[in-house]
User: Fold these one by one.
Assistant:
Number 1:
Amino acid sequence: MGCMWSKAWAPESVLQTQGAVDPYNTFVKAQDAIWKSMVACHSLPSECLDADYGSLLATPALAKIDMPDGSPLKDLAGSFVFDWCVEFLKGNAKFKAAGRRMEEYYWKETQPQHIDAVHLRNALMQRDRINLSRRLVTTERGYVGMALETVERGDAVGVLYGCSMPIVLRESKTNVGDSRWRVIGECYLHGMMNGEAMEWGTNPQDIVLF
């Protein structure tokens, strides 16, 4: 699990994954999974994503560039939403996602003139809304996403009939050894949002929620 918003994106709040599984098969698809997870694949105002927000991964590089006065990007780079995105990415730099450290997915070099300031502004605002009280997560199968800060290592992700999003569940044993599951909250997992898990061949199970 990635660094925590409530701890100001401190790297020491990262719980490192040990997995090296990449369900996305290519670097570009895994990179897309990162930035799309940061905005839950939605654009403002909470509509299905219709723009490329990949420039979110350019913010650490942009933060090091001395941009000319009056540049829309310079004004944007001085904003809180820009700083918070940079801190989020710095805090998660060593976190492994789809078999690679997060920092490997960041844009190494970029030219300000190649960045659409309006798209980046919208992306930053959406990232800020989605990342509030949430942290980056990965699963044993290597899927990347965002979930509430209250998730813990070992929690399960369930696709429940009637729910529009995957749900984080935490198992608890009763006195007689039966399993019950506590609902922790919804999550975004890139590659599991359109019913893909139903094609894994896993038989549906009845569970008890509490």
Note: The CA atoms of residues 10 and 206 lie 39 Å apart.
Number 2:
Amino acid sequence: MPKADQADDSNKQHPQDELMEIIDQAKAAIGKLWETALVPFHAAVSKPAQRAYLGTFLFATTSLFLLGLSTIAYALFYFNYVPQVSVERTIHLQFGEGHPHGAATLDSSLTSLQAYDVSLLLHLPRTPNNQAAGNFMLDLSLLSPARAPSTTEKLLPESTLKQRLAHSRRPAILTYASPIIDTASTLTGLPWYVLGWKTESEVVEVSMFEGVGFPKGWTNVPQDVKLVVEADEKMQFYEVGVRIFAKFGGLRWIMYHHRILSYVVFTSMFWSSSMISALLAWLVLSSYLTSDSTAMKKEETTSLKIKTEQSESEKYEPSLLGGLSDTSRTFPAIGRHVALRFNGRDEDAGRGFDEGVKKEDEVIQSTGLQPLTPEADDEDEEIETSGFRDSGIGTSLDESQRARVQRRKKGSLLGGLPENQ
């Protein structure tokens, strides 16, 4: 091919190579950009991030759950600690022999260690008898729950089994109006009287107790009230009622008059104590689980180490060791040379009995010294007392091997040189 044609072909291939290089660089740049864009995503889905998400979720769930429990706890505490602020009961008077009298049940509306104001509401018509009665007496008693009757008291009325906890007598009277004022007031309100929007009556409120309290204990809290109206004239009544109003003080006053603030403070206290208790419980539980896992890992490591030692010890088969002695021996060196030590079962024990004995003989021949061994017949006894014991490997040696071992022992005991020296 002419040189001009080859130059044209090279010029044609050169732009193609440049185009491929540009494409490869673009792909590399796009790959780097893609990896850079995925870095936040990889960080967001990594294991530390997943653990953080799980911890945040558990913390938020536990916090909301304990907040709900704290709200319920505060509500129960509020309704048990703060009593009913106002109690009203209607007293149905009984007329007949004696003065008009009546009673009403308070149930468990009152509580101990709380001051109360007690008053009576009398709805009286302005009849001639009521106006003629003038001042009349109101006798009010607060009675305790009925006690268990004895054998002789079973036939008695239940009212006799109740103890009087508080007693008060107060006077009452209708508002006076002269005949002229009374007539003028009636004529002025005549249309209202005709339409029924107004009646010729009056409501008289009489305070019977101020700040009365009761000692601690359910038997000291009133459960019933009893009223007796004492008057010289036969009086008429539309309605008679008793009103009991609690006079809060201290913490009860704060909780009743500042309910939102009290809710925030007490709920926060309950929630904080619950979170601290939950945290302590979690720390104790996690430490317990961690100690258990550590103990398990330690046991696994120990068992693995034992297995490894057993597997390594199995490498040295007795059949390969032959007549090699288990006893380690030290050979003194001449001059300042380091003493030579011969291990009966070394890493090369697998090479066989002949190679081990050959090595020991070579050491004896090179140094000209005998191994440092115990004396004569006391050798076996001293070895046993020192805690060292020969494994007995090589007891199945053939006759030639036994002869060589006996010859080596004899030479060491006599202190002379080996026979082959």
Note: Residues 85 and 246 are 5 Å apart (CA to CA).
